Amino acid sequence: MDRHRRDADAIAARHTVAVNAPLPRGIERRRTVRFPGWHEVALWMPDRRLLVVADILGTAAYFVATDEERLGVHPAARPFPPRKALHDLDPLAVAVGHGAPVTKDATVALYDALRTSRRRLPAAYRHAWRMSRQARARNQMIDR
């Protein structure tokens, strides 16, 4: 993830690996996003049926269009969901950088997120706006 390199050296040192070390056998890189200001690669581990993503997908409140949506495309990338990169996967779990992992019916959640990303865009932006207002209100109460 190009925007999150700030901690890469420290994390690599803690795990005694190189920042750009080759991936172990059996792990595939899937380019999910590449447009100005954003370049992201997801990791697919077919033997574990695990998809690992940094920012393109998430479960945090500001990623999902409704409280019922379990996995959502990043608000800035909703118009450009990574369908081509992820369309052929059948994960048992999706580990995300923002929010809890999806461990139940992950394939269904992934395809729902990819298929409805654009259609749910207005609802997702409204939901994100509501979540940010609620967070600001909580922070103001704490500051008092």
What does this molecule look like?
- This protein is of the alpha+beta class and about 140 residues long.
- The protein has one domain.
- The chain contains 4 helices and 6 strands.
- The chain has helices at about 10-15, 85, 105-115, 120-144, and strands at about 30-35, 40-45, 50, 55-60, 70-75, 95.
- The chain has a 4-stranded mixed sheet. A two-stranded antiparallel ribbon has the order 4-5.
- A hairpin with a 4-residue loop joins strand 2 and strand 3.
- The termini are far apart.
Question: Can you describe this structure in just a few lines?
Answer:
The protein is of the alpha+beta class and 144 residues long.
Write the SSE topology.
Blueprint lengths: L7 H7 L13 E8 L2 E8 L4 E3 L4 E2 L13 E2 L9 H4 L6 E3 L10 H11 L4 H23 L1
Parallel strand pairs: 3-6
Antiparallel strand pairs: 1-2, 2-3, 4-5
Distance between the termini: 37 Å
Question: What best-fitting shape do the alpha-carbon axes yield?
Answer: globular
- How many domains would you count in the coordinates? 1
- Sequence stretches where pLDDT stays below 50 over 5 or more residues: none
Radius of gyration: 16 Å
What percentage of residues falls in helices of 4 or more residues? 25-40%
Strand order of the largest sheet: 1-2-3-6
Q: How many alpha or pi helices? A: 4
Specify the biggest β-sheet.
4 strands, mixed
Strand content: 15-25%
Q: What structural class do you assign from the helix and strand content?
A: alpha+beta
